[in-house]
Amino acid sequence: MKSIDLSSPAEAFSKQAPHFDADESSNSILKEWRQQIYDHVDQYLKPGDRILELNAGTGIDALRFAKNNYAVHATDLSQGMIVEIEKKVIQHKLKQFTFEQCSFHKIDKINSAKFDYVFSNFGGLNCCSDLTSVTKLLPGLINPNSYVTWVIMPPICLWELLWVFKGKKAAFRRLKRNGTVAHLEGEYFKTYYHSLQNIKKSFGPKFKLIKTEGLGALSPPPASDSFAVKHKTINRWLNYLDKKARNSFPFNQWADHIIVTFKYIG
Fold first, then answer.
1. Cα-based distances in Å from 214 to 75, 152, 153, 156, 163
2. What whole-number distance in Å separates Cα of residue 253 and Cα of residue 260?
3. How far apart are alpha carbons 266 and 135 in whole angstroms?
4. Would you list the DSSP string of 20-53?
5. What span, in angstroms and rounded, lies between the C-alpha atoms of 190 and 148?
6. What distance in Å separates the CA atoms of residue 128 and residue 142, rounded to the nearest whole number?
7. So what's the pLDDT on residue 2?
8. What is the CA radius of gyration of the chain?
9. Do the Cβ atoms of 4 and 186 come closer than 8 Å?
């Protein structure tokens, strides 16, 4: 078997950055999922909160928070993504929207007042093999009673497991203990899938798990947007079932992504 040269995920995401927003706007599932995530986060945000976003991508979420009068500091390691964030900051002229090129492994170097919320969306932290390397830095960055919401890909996704009936080896890619190789924009890099148990362990006793919610537990993922378009009736039923099940075990742990929120209790 031919060996693959692995690169940094930042290189792949830099290449993706120029067309990332256009890809999202054309994907109905992604738009619905992002709204579900906002509905989750809005339960815990308080007026005047300062938000730190990890792996902010092109700044879609940061811009939404800033427009809702939250101070948000968006970070990302990818130079291409930072370029797109800067465009949004310049265009919208929101003083409460700041940004910085920074790895999630070095957030302790951020020179800022403490934050009230830490947010990371759509599997950015799945590029991290050991979440403890990030969680150990959080107490020095946040105020007491702050919240952390991460949207992470877990090891079990029912929709992907069904791929086995199509003969796809990728059906079991999430179950590899040492991660799997992802391919994006011609670049190859390692991706790691984290169970809820693993995530809880990484946060330790200083954080209390508040809520976990499945994202795409029964409904198709964004990569299957064509299915949703072609089979609208079936998709509506799957979305209905997903909404009923996503807050209950096992569907709040077995999904394309899970939304997990912790409270810092010190």
1. 25, 10, 10, 11, 19
2. 9
3. 13
4. HHHHHHT-HHHHHHHHHHHHHHTTT--TT-EEEE
5. 24
6. 21
7. 47
8. 18
9. no
Averaged pLDDT score across all residues of the chain: 95
- Global pTM reads 0.96
d(CA 15, CA 5): 17
Structure confidence by residue, pLDDT tens digits, 20-68? 999 999 999 999 999 999 999 999 999 999 999 999 999 999 999 999 9
Element (H, E) at 76: strand 71-76
Peptide bond into 18 cis (omega under 30): no
Read off the amino acid at residue 242: D
Tokens of 65: 């928070």
User: Which tokens in the block code for residue 120?
Assistant: 């990371």
What is the sign, positive or negative, of the torsion defined by CA atoms of 52, 57, 62, 64? Answer: negative
Q: How many CA atoms lie within 13 A of 240 on its CB side?
A: 6
Per-residue pLDDT tens over the stretch 114-162: 999 999 999 999 999 999 999 999 999 999 999 999 999 999 999 999 9
